[in-house]
Amino acid sequence: MSIRWTYAFVDRPVASFTRAHTFWTAVTDTRLSEFRGEQGEFVTLLPGGGADPCVKAQGVESGAGGAHLDFAVDDVPGFVKSALAQGAGVAAEHEGWAVLRSPAGQLFCAVPWHGESVRPPVVHGSRLDQVCVDVAPSLYESEIAFWSALLDGWQSAPGSRPEFHVLKPPSGLPIRILLQRLGKEGLGEEPRASAHLDLACADIAATRARHEELGASFVAEGPHWTVMRDPAGGTYCLTGRDPETGGLTGSSAS
Known about the structure:
By secondary structure, the chain is of the alpha+beta class. The protein contains four helices and 16 strands. The protein has helices spanning 17-28, 76-85, 140-150, 204-213; strands at 3-13, 31-32, 42-46, 55-60, 66-73, 89-94, 97-101, 107-112, 126-135, 155-158, 164-168, 176-181, 194-201, 217-221, 225-229, 235-239. The protein has an eight-stranded mixed β-sheet, with helices on one face. The protein has an eight-stranded mixed β-sheet with strand order 10-11-12-9-13-16-15-14, covered by helices on one side. A hairpin with a 2-residue loop joins β6 (89-94) and β7 (97-101). It is globular and about 45 Å long.
């Protein structure tokens, strides 16, 4: 099933939605579209220069929010059928589009393709180019199998660390997927998958400083990433990857 375009969705609570889209438009050097939805809960971040958008934002009524993917396709019913055959479930059906759930519980959407083809440029040395799906250990291998089967034509390969698996789209599509195996946290029911946004940064320190000026705050440091919190309370990562290629800085690796 051919995927024509990909969108990263910034999901944040309604109470902090304005703070969220104000921050993310500044980060991505975009402007807001008209608000859509029954409650004005959807908005697209529009780049300039003739590029097509690849980031949207949503105000959610319950929960802390997070992130999800939209896959723009020629044949929404066909994509839904393929996803269900691979083990997905239907979370909600709408006229012309559908909300689906991966076997591990991560939401994603099938939406119509409207001709998007021009990827937004790198801005201020960074690019929002990845949705990271955090998966419980017992579901990690099956989640890899699901996404690898669903995303026909994407490159599916182990990442730079044992707990990472990368799904890279064909050239030209703007958003890729990183699957991350969470650490074990004792006995009990494992949580559903959740997701956050990743930015590829030529200089993490410089990007962090700019984001802090815009209202973000530092959370934690990783081997080649920095965890941040945006003004709406959502966490995301600044990663040491080439903003043009998505690969690790100074390496051809993913």
